Amino acid sequence: MPSISLPPRGERILRWADALALHSDHPEHLTCAYMTPAHRAVAAMLATWMREAGFDDVRHDAVGNVIGRYRAVPGQDAARLVATGSHYDTVRNGGRYDGRLGILLPIAVVAELHAQGRRLPFDFEVVGFAEEEGLRFGGTFLGSSAYVGRFDSAVLDRTDAAGIAMCDALREAGFDPARVNTDAGDIARLAHYFEVHIEQGPVLLDRGLAVGVVSAIAGGVRRLLTLQGQAGHAGTTPMGLRHDAACAAAEVVLAVERRCQRGDGLVGTVGRLEVPDGSINVIPGRCQLSLDVRAPDDALRDAALADLDAEIAAICHRRGIGMAMEEIMRVPATPCAPAQRSLWSAAIAAHGVPVHELPSGAGHDAMMVAKVAPVSMLFVRCGNGGVSHNPLETVTGEDVQLAAQVTETFLLSLARTLE
Ligand code: HGY
Ligand code: MN
Ligand code: MN
Question: Which residues does Zn(2+) 1 bind (predicted)?
Answer without folding.
Answer: 87, 98, 197
